[in-house]
Amino acid sequence: MKNNYKVKSRLTLLIAIVFSYLGFAQDTDQEQLKKLYDVALTQGKGYDWLNYLSNQIGGRLSGSVQAQQAVNYTKAQLDSLGLDNVWLQPVMVPKWVRGTPEFAYFETTPGVTTNVAICALGGSVATPPKGIKASIIEVSGIEELATIGKDKIKGKIVFFNRPMDPTQINTFNAYSNVVDQRYSGALEASKYGALGVVVRSMNLRLDDFPHTGSMGYGEQLVEDRIPAAAISTNAADLLSISLKLNPEINFYFKQNCKQFEDVESYNVIGEIKGSTRPEEIILVGGHLDSWDLGDGSHDDGAGCVQSMEVLNLFKKTGYKPKRTIRVVLFMNEENGLRGGIKYAELAASNKENHIFALESDSGGFSPRGFTFDCSDKDFEKVKGWKELFEPYLVHYFQKGGAGADIGPLKKHNDMVLAGLRPDSQRYFDYHHAENDTFEHVNKRELQLGAATMASLVYLVDKYGF
Questions:
Q1: How many Å apart are CA 204 and CA 185, to the nearest integer?
Q2: Which partner for 373 in 115, 130, 247, 402 could form a disulfide, CB atoms 3.0-4.6 Å apart?
Q3: Per-residue pLDDT for 430 more than 50?
Q4: Does one domain contain both 83 and 140?
Q5: Quick check: 206 pLDDT over 60?
Q6: In terms of domains, do 110 and 159 share one?
Q7: Is 19 a domain residue?
Q8: What is the pLDDT of residue 182?
């Protein structure tokens, strides 16, 4: 009886110690997160970095002078933080140039024309020097081409007009359901004899900004490729209504883009070495390249400066990580993913041990949470941290995709990937368009996102998986 009493007493004491430790640990974590948010909102550098990237450099299309200027600038800023290592990782990237501004109109009767806001899709071939003028046929998606048949498509311009679904609360789901017509529309329409394609912009809002984005021809011979362009949502609606009134409308467009040989560029990398487990790497990053129409502030200048800010916040709060924290600014996410692929290849060949990677590539809006690409066991651990974020209105923790640039790492390592998930309702108003500019980024929202990323990195560093 006495022995049973002793066992129960020791068990009770052990439970009390465990709960006391857990409470202390939670208090310590709350204090550290508060420090990170406070410093981000009062002493952060991300907004100033983004101001320079956007307004002094501008759009940073892979292979461009501006992309190289961005490489030089961000490396210099990482050097200024006093990190343990900063370096450039060479990578060959495609060089596609838009050329002189595109022009388009549709003609309802001979001589009666209406101009259309248009831009070439990234990677498209040019039209003939005098442009293309032909009758136009509207479809709601690639699958409809087979229904219509080659006889009715040959010699015409195909107009892909499937809109993003406004009932989708997660706007990235709405985007995923229509982006195939942008990426593969030209390849598929060319099989039916089309002369070119125009695509409704991937945008939930009605406006006059055409949205570019990558498209591909697969292994198609160059001489068989047809030009592809996007028109604004307002133009798409007007064209669709006009076609219903007059199916004999002619459409004209001219673009002067060109694909050059690959050129050398760089991933920009900086790191703080871990104090006790330096061989375990936690990666945080975004992509440095952008499309050329705007200045790429939301996509993805915001993600780059937020990732840089993570290291800056650790420095300013005096936090010394146990594991190596590495920021990677990837080159060529938009039209090739070469930076992410090269980084993963070298990480594998160098036998680097990445345990976690976090990417911000969804705009600089208010952070709402994260999506995680991981096992159920690791996700359960992550969910245990959720209540620490709730005071900052960050509450969305779901399994799902992480980020395009960090995805290739998963092929070489069974690790946890995560993506920052800001509020997405306005993102596609600016995505790949001329209005993706600095004035549409809110400083407070941007810095909250950086603090949210730093907080998750801190927790992964402290507790691991």
A1: 20
A2: 402
A3: yes
A4: no
A5: yes
A6: yes
A7: no
A8: 98
Using CA atoms, how far apart are residues 349 and 385, in angstroms rounded to an integer? 33
**Is 204:172 a contact under the CB 8 Å cutoff?**
no
Q: How sure is the predictor about 12, in pLDDT bands with cuts at 50, 70 and 90?
A: low
Distance (Å, whole) CA 441 – CA 302: 8
Q: What is the mean pLDDT of residues 351-372?
A: 98
Residue 286's φ and ψ, nearest 5 degrees, are -150, -175
Asked which of 208, 225, 256 is the last residue of a domain, the reply is 256
Write down the pTM of the prediction: 0.93
**Residue 192 domain boundaries:** 99-256
My answer on whether 197 and 233 are in the same domain is yes
For 109, phi and psi rounded to 5 degrees? -140, 160
281-302 per-position pLDDT tens digit? 999 999 999 999 999 999 999 9
pLDDT for position 16: 46
- Answer yes or no: do 142 and 250 share one domain: yes
Burial of 421 by CB count in 10 Å (0-12 exposed, 13-18 middle, 19+ buried)? buried
Of 239, 256, 273, the last residue of a domain is 256
Residue 135 belongs to domain with CATH number: 3.50.30.30
- 297-307 residue pLDDT tens: 999 999 999 99
Phi/psi of residue 209, nearest 5 degrees: -100, 115
Q: Is residue 10 part of a domain?
A: no
Give the residue carrying structure tokens 């640039």: 405
Domains of the chain: total: 2
Active site residues: 333
Instruction: Answer whether residue 133 is part of any domain.
Output: yes
Contacts of 199 (CB under 8 A, 6+ apart): 121, 159, 160, 181, 182, 185, 228, 229, 230, 231
Are both 41 and 170 inside the same structural domain?
no
* pLDDT for residue 9: 59
CB atoms within 10 A of CB 222: 8
115 and 44 within one domain = no
User: Could you tell me if 160 and 177 are in contact, meaning their C-beta atoms sit under 8 angstroms apart?
Assistant: no
Residues 165, 204 contacting (CB under 8 angstroms):
no
pLDDT of residue 275 exceeding 80, the answer is yes
352 in any annotated domain: yes
